[in-house]
Each structure stands twice: as C-alpha cells, then as structure tokens.
Write a structure and sequence with these properties.
By secondary structure, the chain is α+β, with helices and mostly antiparallel strands. It has 2 domains: about 210 residues, no CATH class; about 110 residues, no CATH class. It is built from 17 helices and 10 strands. A hairpin with a 2-residue loop joins β2 and β3. α2 packs antiparallel against α16, α11 packs across α13 and α11 packs parallel to α16. It is elongated. The two termini are about 25 Å apart.
Length: about 425
C-alpha cells in the first residue's frame, strides 16, 4: 500500500479530455512561468552585480590616501616619504602619486568637462597596467604633452587619435567667468578691452594619444602628473597616493589596519573603491531583493492554481475517496495521493521553467536587439549600466532556493484541500458520489 498514493496520483494525472486535465496543464504552466522568470531575472541581476564589481576593480584605484586639510598651519607631510612607506607594505602592490580634478576639453568649438587623473608613466604603476587592458585605440603613453580619454568622450567632442586638444583648468575657467561678470557693462569699449586682456585662462595644448573603452574603463581621462599639478595649482604636491592592493575585496579592513598602524598621518585620510561606489553595489543588491519578492507573487499565483486543481480533483473523485476510506485506507494515505499529484505538477513545472529560463538567457542579447528595433528603446542602455551586453551569472544557491520554494508552495497549497478530502465520511461520500 506504500506505493498506492503515488500510483493513484499518476493515474489521476493521465491526459483526458476533461476540465481537470485543462486546469492541471494551466497549473503546470503557472509554475513554469514563475520559475522561468525568476531564473532569468535573478541570473541577470547576479551577472550585472558581478560584472559591475569586476569592472570597478578593473579601472578604479583600490584605495586612495589623501590629505584631509588644506590649512596653512597644518603640519606638512612629505608625500614622497609616505609613498615609500606604503609601497613597502606586503599588502600593497603599488603606490602611485596622483593629482585628480576636473578640466574642460575643447576641440573645434566643442567644450566638455571631464574628470582626469594625473600620474607618472612608471613601470611599477599598477593602476596604469590595469588601464592599458581597456585600450581601444592608440598607445597609452603619459609622456610629454599627452592626454588619454574614453572613446565615448572623444566621440562627443569629435576628437580622434593624434588631434591636438585645448585643455582648460576648470578653476581658471570659473575665475574667468567671475572676472568677466565683474566688468561693468557700461564701461567704455577701450577700458572693457583692457579689462578683458587682464583676464586669463590656464590652458594647454595636449595630444590625444589613446582612447579607452568607456563601457569597461569609465569616462575618466588621464594626463601626465606634472600637467595635472599645473592645472590644479598643486605645484609639487599631489592630491593623494593611489594604492593597488593584493586583495581588492578586502580593501577596507586592510586600509583600516594600515591607518591604525600609524603609517598614514592624522592629517591624511583614506577611501576605497567600495566606499566610492558602494551605494551603487548596494542599489543593485536592493533591486535584486525587491525583484525577488515581486516575482515571488507569480509563484503564489501558481500555487493557488495548484490548490484549485486539487480542490477540483477531490470533488470529482469524492466517490473513489469514499470507497478507499471504506476499504481501510488511512487519512494520511488519502492526503498523500493529492499532495503527490501536486508535487508531480510542481516538479514538471520546475523542470520546464528551468529549461525555459536558460533558453531565454542564451538569447538575451538577441532579444534586447529585437526589442530595441521594434520599440526604438534600449532596455539595457550602456550609459546607465556601463556594460555593452546583458550579463548573466547563475548562482546554484539561487536555483535551489527558486526550485525549493516553488515545490514547497505547491505542496502546501495542495495540503489543505487534501486534508479536507481525507476527513470525508465514507457513507456520505458514496451517497453523494453515486
């Protein structure tokens, strides 16, 4: 009798031209849809989170040590000595002095602001070695009057490799605008011209020597250190010291330990790539969790469909249930028949959902292109997600959670009507069923 519940469950699931077969198929399709959508969406979110994290590690400095005060009475720290101490640490791969800020790039009348980092072209420059992996055109050379930009930014200002660009210091541009506004509008033309002659903007002609892929290296530009120091009025100082670490994921505890050791002066602070972009990674994780709960309702709807199927079957098989009970079948065996039926439907839906989810994952970029052609809108724009293609990474833990949740919800949904069916009085069931 131990295999009887499963035998009867399979018998009740045999295809027939009846209403029960129709709602059974609908129940299975509901489970399939829920599982397939969850597999697809969770894989895309996991892939985006993973690729975005790797992308940040691939072009962002792992950590930055920088002065926290500009007061004249603050004790001065020799950044060169600090660099030597940091570079000697076993956790540090390279320590590179940098000067960062914003400049205005001009080409054929097109002006655009861009964030840049100035650094020396040295053999032990770990950041430079990372960035060269994202090279698209030209040669990444920070010697002489050169500048490296992203391919997207270069396209926006109409620049190509070898062009000479006029680069203006943003602070001097702001000062220029302020001084021009201070010139009285009613001033004589000659006096106005003399005043304008006294207004200057710090500018340099730089040659575009290379472009980097914007989708993997961001939109930042790069110039030699001495040029950035001139743009940002640093003289021989630097904005900070960029560190490449052996363990990028453990950047925060490593930097905290270095700071506590006293190597970093009290007037200097530190930040990591995770602090700089942590809110974006948290946003992705929050969206992923919210999407999980939203899509879970599809599973609940599928479970309700399974419950309706079980209710319908128990009503249709009321006479058979009465006969089985009269023959001595126990209540748990009656329950097992209909729970097994729901379990088989759930398992079939899960398998079909997994196949469907992985199929659509395999054609996800083709689907994006087709939707973009039909609607004229990109559903995964590079400007927002910083990736040229839709990533995907299937986590085994997510798969197990999705499949287990689907089956558990269906079994629990079937348990209630099955329990009521098992409590039926045999005499009443035979009389009503007859």
């Amino acid at each position: 009798m131990s295999s009887a519940p499963l035998f009867l469950a399979l018998r009740y699931l045999r295809p027939t031209r009846s209403f029960i077969s129709v709602i059974t198929v609908i129940s299975m399709l509901g489970v399939m849809l829920g599982v397939g959508v969850l597999v697809f969406v969770m894989s895309v979110f996991s892939g985006w989170q993973r690729e975005f994290r790797q992308m940040l590690i691939g072009f962002e400095p792992h950590a930055m040590v920088q002065p926290m005060t500009t007061r004249d009475d603050a004790p001065k720290t020799d950044w060169r000595e600090l660099r030597k101490k940091l570079a000697a640490l076993p956790e540090v791969v390279s320590a590179v002095p940098v000067a960062d800020g914003v400049v205005v790039v001009e080409n054929e009348g097109n002006l655009q602001g861009v964030s840049i980092i100035g650094m020396n072209d040295e053999a032990d420059n770990g950041l430079l070695q990372k960035l060269r992996k994202h090279l698209k055109d030209g040669k990444f050379d920070l010697k002489g009057d050169s500048i490296v930009l992203s391919d997207k930014f270069a396209k926006e200002i109409g620049a190509k490799i070898g062009d000479t660009l006029v680069v203006h210091a943003a602070d001097s541009v702001n000062q220029f605008i302020k001084q021009v506004r201070e010139i009285p509008e009613d001033a004589e033309e000659t006096k106005r011209a003399e005043a304008l002659d006294n207004v200057t903007v710090l500018s340099k002609d730089l040659t575009l020597v290379a472009t980097l892929r914007a989708d993997t290296a961001g939109l930042r530009g790069y110039v030699p250190l001495h040029i950035a120091q001139e743009f940002f009025n640093l003289e021989s100082d630097v904005s900070g010291i960029e560190l490449e670490l052996k363990d990028a994921d453990g950047a925060e505890p490593v930097m905290d330990a270095i700071y506590r050791s006293g190597i970093i002066p009290e007037t200097w602070g530190w930040r990591t790539w995770m602090q700089e972009h942590g809110f974006m990674l948290e946003s992705v994780e929050n969206q992923r969790v919210m999407m999980w709960f939203i899509l879970l309702f599809i599973m609940l709807v599928a479970a309700i469909c399974v419950m309706n199927t079980t209710i319908t079957v128990t009503v249709k098989k009321r006479r058979e249930i009465g006969i089985l009970t009269a023959l001595g079948t126990r209540a748990w065996q009656i329950i097992a028949i209909f729970v097994s039926q729901a379990g088989i439907v759930a398992l079939a839906g899960v398998v079909a959902g997994l196949c469907g989810g992985f199929f659509f994952l395999s054609i996800r970029n083709w689907l994006r292109d087709q939707i973009a052609d039909l609607t004229g809108r990109d559903i995964f724009p590079q400007d927002i997600y910083f990736l040229s293609s839709i990533p995907a990474h299937t986590n085994i833990g997510d798969l197990l959670t999705i499949c287990t949740t689907a089956v558990a919800l269906c079994l629990m949904a079937a348990l209630v009507p099955a329990w009521f069916a098992a409590r039926v009085d045999p005499a009443v069931a035979l009389r009503d069923g007859g």
